């Protein structure tokens, strides 16, 4: 049977027609007054439409629209939102307009495999997507010149369905473009498509545009009639299929993404690779530049490298994207030939070592991006240690992977009730209607909020969380076939006056969702303490292929259903999603985070909870390592090393129990004179908000990317795009490579054998042989510090030495310095390449130490 379709649009009266425009811009997702408009139309339908306004409007009866057009209050509210929307879009005093550098036509293209912007656009899976979505929202708020590139999945989000025993099954609902805030990109009235070579075939992809406030997200889609069934399936499911479909997805994202921007006439000056999935874009950029500027591979690579940003999120080697080299050759041999390099040369770009058995996308991105970072300070350190082999001879501390700590988009995660309180007491002096959550001065006024008002808002959100949990649990038990009495009891789980601790995240085993259940007798005493009871709310999904994670869920659900000590006091909420996350971070008293340190690259759920007044109970890992120990949250253990996983779990679970019993519960229940709340607890809430809110937000994060990465990358791009510059840098790098074997240090003086006094100057002289190189092409440094356990030096400082002349075949270098510390001083001398036209001469690395 051949089925045809057509789409019927709602016919809105003219005075409320703005609802259609609002539904087609993801701006609504972080504006409560906009959301409230849709709720006013039909609250129940809004919920059943999963808060997707485009779908929602298509379900509203025409009669209801006619009624609303005559409702004075609704029209007034709509006009207020309309005014706010246009003021936002046309604001001439945005952060970027007032802080932009003289940097030409800076435009950053941000590539990510997933984006979590709102439930109405379900193309996300977990934390990576949440971060990408928040990155885009802050780019809009700041008016930053950033556009997003991703894939449009037919099945973009997995729904978790638990059976009676608590075992996770998955369902994959289809996305329907007609019911989503997307539009096909056209040119001259025709839909734009791009052709992407894929092994022995060519696949077509169309482009969808998603308005995100002041910016746009572009999504590639291979589900086209012109493609074969296998080609159409490439973008069918987020992270779906086998390894072959995965690499096909990444070719479409990386290669196709660059082609799509070119087809639309968009010319980014900087490319940001959010995790290694999109690293193939580097090769398409090289090919394009080679053709456009008639450059060689080496010359074009200089431009691409200097203008590429790479953010890694994974703190373990195995968690990074690896492919079998034979599979890579099947799909990338064409691109290697287009670049004019051998297959061995191409393969070397993705291998950590010459004998590595796999091709790693993270290695590709690290080798071909000048600006690389982890997503927290500790993660940056872990990444430098993990990828040190790519820069042999370089001290770990200098491996060119820095860190920019993740944040959250505050307006998307703060409850509307609390946001109103913030507006009343903290944001009330803002003249332009837009608030920058990274402004410390705003949050310094948190003490102005009366305790009673803050607690009242917190209580409202806590009750909403409990209502949500009860409703979800009743529906779940009914679907699972439980008896009427069990369903009825679900209406009484959790108590509003009880200390509530939340745990919600992906159920990867390293996140240790079951650590709380290490000692059930101890947990029983905590949960059922007659004076200071504690209750817990759990939520989260395991990856469909993660059997161990599913076992964790099954164990927790089993305890909550079958153990009378915990029934109704510990609950597991099915199908964790953005909406569930909001209820949880906005309603719990404490947010629990207990991964194995240092395997949590950053974590952002705790930030979301903190901005809503929840206090942290966390391992010193990810972002919390930058906060704790502190006096407004609790750290589980320190940075200890353990002999075994069993010892770690025993020690840290014991520490967690102790903190809950001895510190957290007493502070929460310290209510005096019949008060409804604890003054010490309110004080902790305010201190937590004051310190965490201005730092751990994506406005601060995106501004940091702009200042540290986007602007320098753009500037180097401007230099290297000047006639002859890329050729000159490539020639210089070739000269370095060809002549580096002749570079050496022949002598350095003094080597004092007696102590010197603090304040005295020490004068160093060195003889350096450079062969065919000149002093202008290298940099000689005195490397100071303390001798490490591996025979290296842990750096405290590196001081440039000055060339003062030549003696025979050696150049003379000198420097004077005064030691800053007493005690033994260790030093070494090293030589590095130097070129003022590129950002980081250590990549690729040449370095010579005195031997």
From TrEMBL:
Required co-factor(s) are: pyridoxal 5'-phosphate
Keywords of the record: Allosteric enzyme, Carbohydrate metabolism, Glycosyltransferase, Pyridoxal phosphate, Transferase
Cross-referenced PROSITE patterns = PHOSPHORYLASE
Q: Catalysed reaction(s)?
A: [(1->4)-alpha-D-glucosyl](n) + phosphate = [(1->4)-alpha-D-glucosyl](n-1) + alpha-D-glucose 1-phosphate
The EC number on file is: 2.4.1.1
Which segments constitute the DUF3417 domain?
12-120
Q: Does the keyword tRNA-binding apply?
A: no
Entry-linked InterPro entries = Agluc_phsphrylas (IPR011834), Glyco_trans_35 (IPR000811), Glycogen/Maltodextrin_Phosph (IPR052182), Glycogen_phosphorylase_DUF3417 (IPR024517), Pyridoxal_P_attach_site (IPR035090)
Q: Which domain of life is it from?
A: Bacteria
Output the Gene3D superfamilies linked to this UniProt entry: Glycogen Phosphorylase B
* Record-listed N6-(pyridoxal phosphate)lysine modification sites: 608
User: GO annotations under biological process?
Assistant: carbohydrate metabolic process
Q: Name one GO molecular function term.
A: pyridoxal phosphate binding
Keyword Oxidoreductase tagged: no
What is the main EC category here? transferase
Q: What this chain does, per the record?
A: Phosphorylase is an important allosteric enzyme in carbohydrate metabolism. Enzymes from different sources differ in their regulatory mechanisms and in their natural substrates. However, all known phosphorylases share catalytic and structural properties.
Similarity comment: Belongs to the glycogen phosphorylase family.
Task: Indicate what this protein is called per its UniProt record.
Answer: glycogen phosphorylase
| Species of provenance | Candidatus Avelusimicrobium gallicola
């Amino acid at each position: 049977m051949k089925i045809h379709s057509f789409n019927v649009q709602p016919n809105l009266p003219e005075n409320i027609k703005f609802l259609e425009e609002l539904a087609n811009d993801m701006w609504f997702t972080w504006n409560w007054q906009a959301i409230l408009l849709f709720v006013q139309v039909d609250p129940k339908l809004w919920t059943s439409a999963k808060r997707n306004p485009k779908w929602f409007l298509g379900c509203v009866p025409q009669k209801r629209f006619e009624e609303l057009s005559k409702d004075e209050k609704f029209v007034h509210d709509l006009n207020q939102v309309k005014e706010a929307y246009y003021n936002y879009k046309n604001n001439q005093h945005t952060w970027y307009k007032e802080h932009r550098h003289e940097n030409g036509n800076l435009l950053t293209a941000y590539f990510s495999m997933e984006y979590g912007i709102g439930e109405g656009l379900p193309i996300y899976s977990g934390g990576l997507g949440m971060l990408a979505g928040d990155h885009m929202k802050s780019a809009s708020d700041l008016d930053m010149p950033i556009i997003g590139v991703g894939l449009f999945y037919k099945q973009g989000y997995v729904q978790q369905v638990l059976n009676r025993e608590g075992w996770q099954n998955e369902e994959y609902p289809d996305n329907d473009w007609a019911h989503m805030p997307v539009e096909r990109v056209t040119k001259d009235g025709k839909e734009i498509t791009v052709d992407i070579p894929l092994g022995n075939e060519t696949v077509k992809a169309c482009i969808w545009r998603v308005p995100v406030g002041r910016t746009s997200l572009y999504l590639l889609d291979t589900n086209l009639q012109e493609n074969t069934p296998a080609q159409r399936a490439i973008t069918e499911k987020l992270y779906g299929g086998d390894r072959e479909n995965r690499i096909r997805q990444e070719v479409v994202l990386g290669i196709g993404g660059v082609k799509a921007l070119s087809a639309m006439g968009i010319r980014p000056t900087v490319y940001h690779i959010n995790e290694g999935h999109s690293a193939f874009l580097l090769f398409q950029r090289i090919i394009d530049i080679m053709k456009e500027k008639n450059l060689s591979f080496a010359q074009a690579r200089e431009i691409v490298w200097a203008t590429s940003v790479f953010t890694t999120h994974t703190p373990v080697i195995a968690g990074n994207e690896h492919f079998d080299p034979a599979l890579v050759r099947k799909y990338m041999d064409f691109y290697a030939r287009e670049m004019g390099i051998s297959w061995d040369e191409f393969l070397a770009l993705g291998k950590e070592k010459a004998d590595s058995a796999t091709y790693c996308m993270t290695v590709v991105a690290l080798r071909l991006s000048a600006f690389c970072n982890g997503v927290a300070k500790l993660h940056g350190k872990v990444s430098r240690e993990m990828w040190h082999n790519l820069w042999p001879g370089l001290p770990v501390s200098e491996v060119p992977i820095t860190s920019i700590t993740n944040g959250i988009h505050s307006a998307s995660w703060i409850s509307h009730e609390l946001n109103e309180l913030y507006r009343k007491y903290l944001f009330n002096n803002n003249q332009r209607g837009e608030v920058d959550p990274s402004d410390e001065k705003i949050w310094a006024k948190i003490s102005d909020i009366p305790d009673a008002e803050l607690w009242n808002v917190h209580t409202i959100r806590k009750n909403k969380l409990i209502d949500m949990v009860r409703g979800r649990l009743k529906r779940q038990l009914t679907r699972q076939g439980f008896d009427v009495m069990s369903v009825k009891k679900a209406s009484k789980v959790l108590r509003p006056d009880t200390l509530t601790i939340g745990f919600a995240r992906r159920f990867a085993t390293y996140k240790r969702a079951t650590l709380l259940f290490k000692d059930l007798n101890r947990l029983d005493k905590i949960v059922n303490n007659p004076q200071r009871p504690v209750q817990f709310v759990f939520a989260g999904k395991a990856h469909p292929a993660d059997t161990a994670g599913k076992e964790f869920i099954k164990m927790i659900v089993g305890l909550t259903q079958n153990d009378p000590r915990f029934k109704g006091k510990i609950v597991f909420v099915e199908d964790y999603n953005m909406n569930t996350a909001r209820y949880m971070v906005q309603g719990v008293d404490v947010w629990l985070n207990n991964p194995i340190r240092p395997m949590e690259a950053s974590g952002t759920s705790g930030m979301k909870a903190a901005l809503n007044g929840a206090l942290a109970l966390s391992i010193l890992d990810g972002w919390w390592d930058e906060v704790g120990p502190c006096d407004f949250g609790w750290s589980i253990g320190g940075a200890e090393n353990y002999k075994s996983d069993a010892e770690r779990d025993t020690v840290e679970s014991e520490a967690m129990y102790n903190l809950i019993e001895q510190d957290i519960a007493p502070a929460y229940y310290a209510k005096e004179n019949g008060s409804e709340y604890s003054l010490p607890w309110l004080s902790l809430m305010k201190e937590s908000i004051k310190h965490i809110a201005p730092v751990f937000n994506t406005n601060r994060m995106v501004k940091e990317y702009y200042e540290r990465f986007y602007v320098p990358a753009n500037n180097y791009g401007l230099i290297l795009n000047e006639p002859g510059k890329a050729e000159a840098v490539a020639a210089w790098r070739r000269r370095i490579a060809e002549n580096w074997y002749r570079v050496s240090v022949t002598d350095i003086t003094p080597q004092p054998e007696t102590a010197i006094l603090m304040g005295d100057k020490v004068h160093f002289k060195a003889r350096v042989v450079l062969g065919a190189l000149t002093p202008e092409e290298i940099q000689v440094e005195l490397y100071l510090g303390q001798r490490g356990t591996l025979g290296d030096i842990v750096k405290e400082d590196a001081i440039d030495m000055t060339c003062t002349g030549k003696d025979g075949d050696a150049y003379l270098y000198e420097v004077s310095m005064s030691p800053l510390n007493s005690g033994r001083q260790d030093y070494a001398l090293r030589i590095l390449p130097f070129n003022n036209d590129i950002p980081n001469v250590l990549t690729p690395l040449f370095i010579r130490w005195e031997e």
